[in-house]
Amino acid sequence: MDTSHLAEHAGAASSFFASIFVVATLSMRTMIPLRVFGILTNIILIASAIPTHNYPTLVLHAVLLPLNTYRLHQMLQLVRDVKKSVNSDLSMEWLKPFMTERKCAAGEVLFYKDEKAESMFYIVSGRFQLVESGIEVPVGAIVGELGMLSPSNMRTQTLECIEAGVILSVNYTQVEELYVQNPAFGFYFLRLASARLFQNIATLEQRLAQHATPAFAAPKLA
Amino acid sequence: MGSLLSSLRYLLADFIGEDDDTPPFLPDGLPEGAAPVVSEGIHRLIDYQGASYARLYVARLRRFVGRRDVDDAMFLEIARLMAMRMSYEDPIRIAQLKLAEFGTGADDPRGRSTDDVRKFRFDELIGALPAVVAEPVLDVLERVGWTRKLVSIRFSTKSRWGVRRLKIEAGLRRWRLFSVRYAKERAWVERWLHMIGRSLAKQPKAAIAIVQTATMVQGYGDAYRQGLTDWHAIIDGLAKPTFDGVLPVADLAAAIAEARAAVMPDPRQVALQRAIAEIRARALGAGTNAAAG
Q: pTM (2 decimals)?
């Protein structure tokens, strides 16, 4: 019995079915659903290419399937890490995979006070100092994350490398892209930035209270 | 349709340039007599690069507006010198100026046929291109040791082809802010402003001397490179250590003047380095005596 015409019909039907998924994929507004539909489309197109022996399509989608899966995994992991960070230590380590490594020589200035802020940095090694306040930024710290959300977009201090080291940097545009592509990430990122801001305010209030206490206490002692 | 076009323009902004050509307003609270200087600076930078670049100039100037420690004369000098430094002379600028000169002299036949030959270093020439193109080329030039080689470039309005070529060169300004050279110039201007700010905080009397060091960095080719190296030598050898508190220079303005007097057109900077070393030794000696006394 000749089954070639059956395979032909099955191929045509599955191609039609796959076309619906292609349209659905392209109509997705955000990255995670787009990747999910991309994966489904890849699977359907692979399945439809087998009976019709359409090997170029089969090979193409066999390559695209793991790529889409990997990108989806990256996005989901990012959301998970940011969410975890909001609920624990407020760390920004989750940003590391998106950052570029750069060596810094002693004396090099990463940014100047009042300069327009365009990127944030993660200190991997070496010694870095905020020139105006004289505060040394410890290894593992993220610098410049609030500049992205501040309306003035200006650096408030100068950061100088005082002992050669390595930093990771990421452009605000890249973070903005992640934010726009992925609403869940955007939501947790905002929560994380707000939490860090509140933490800074609490530290300042604590310092203010420490400075204010002796002044108020003095008349009582007298 | 309009919104679709504006989306396309936004998508391709890096390639076709910015849409926003609204010139910046003069900042509020300018000192008396500053408006013409700042206005001239704004026009110069709009002509040089565009409205958004002029806005950067205004934003940088705002750092000094209304400061009690910056008098009118110093503000004027900052405004004038910053406009000068922000419109640095790269091959694109020279092509722009040549075209402007050609446009002005179009009615006067005597002013039309001019020919300029300028010598640039290879790294200077390639550095005017966008970093994504320039960096691999510069790496290759570095490997073969050609970065410092001088190249003669003719800027001519004598022929139609010469004018066309100038227009192409001047058109490269669209990508100027992505260039290797711009990144360095931006860092330089920020460092200069940072040094002025630190001087105002640590040695206010020396601030005007720091402002005027911008005149050391001018032109193009070897003269520019020499000026830049000399400027860094003075800032790194005298100004920065003084502000960091590791060099007790009592009169930084005088020290800078003394070092600037020793500046020679010498790539090895023998006289300048000697002068800086002497000033440092004197300051450290005086500091030790003061501590002992």
A: 0.78
